[in-house]
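Attaching the record inline, Q. Sequence:
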Amino acid sequence: MSTLTSERSAIAGGNNGSATVVAELIQRLVATAVHLGRDQDPVVRDALTKALVDAKVLSLLLARFQSMTSGEGPGAALS
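Structure, as predicted:
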C-alpha cells in the first residue's frame, strides 16, 4: 500500500510543471511547422492539434489530482 501511495503521489505531482514543459515543447513544434511552411498541411495540423489537446488534458488531469490530494494523502481514486 505504501508503494502504491508513493506512485500515486509521483503521478499526481506537486505542481503542473510537466504539463507546462509539454505545452512549451508543442508550441515550439507549432512554430517550427509555421517556419517550414507545413502549418497548412492537414496531416501536420491534425497531429499538432491532437498534441495540443493531449497537453491540455494532461494539465487538467494533474490539476484534478492535486485538488483531490490537498490536505490528505493520495487515495485509490487517483489510480
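The chain has a mean pLDDT of 79. The chain has three helices and no strands.

More tomorrow.
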